[in-house]
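Journal club prep — side note

Before the paper discussion, L.F. wants everyone to see what a predicted structure for a comparable chain looks like in token form. Sequence:
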Amino acid sequence: MTYVSNIFNNSLNSNRKLKYFSVEIITFNGESFTEEIEARSAEEAQEIAASMYEEVDYTMVQGCFVGW
């Protein structure tokens, strides 16, 4: 089972415009990757990032850039 950690509050996710999220992905064998993901919410960014790798154990949003 993949654990998803979300450090952002609902106010950031309530704006449905695309944002750039920095997502850390940890696999079951301990490898760590960081991906820049364009998404509308932190949850969506984590789902996209997790789908990029096999055997994902953990994802966490590290940061977010909201454009104009």
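L.F.'s comment for the group: The longest strand covers residues 56-65. Keep this in mind when we get to the figures.
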